[in-house]
Write a structure and sequence with these properties.
The chain is mainly β and 63 residues long. Helices cover 0% and strands 27% of the residues.
């Protein structure tokens, strides 16, 4: 049985090389709106209009 370190392929990155989620964390607060999806964006529609939020920038969506 072989160990993980002996498998050929990509080298395991060091922990400091990985991106930190705190570097990319941002908050969006929405209240009383209708959520939908349009192409690659999350849309929020309320009485003031429509907001398009890029889906690639959203890590977690709590409803």
């Amino acid at each position: 049985m072989s160990e993980i370190g002996s498998i050929s392929g990509m080298e395991r990155p060091e922990l400091y090389m990985l991106p930190q989620i705190r570097d990319r964390l941002s908050f969006v607060y929405l209240e009383h709106c209708q959520l939908s999806r349009d192409d690659s964006a999350i849309t929020a529609v309320d009485k003031d209009g429509t907001i398009h939020i890029p889906a690639a920038g959203v890590s977690v969506l709590l409803l």
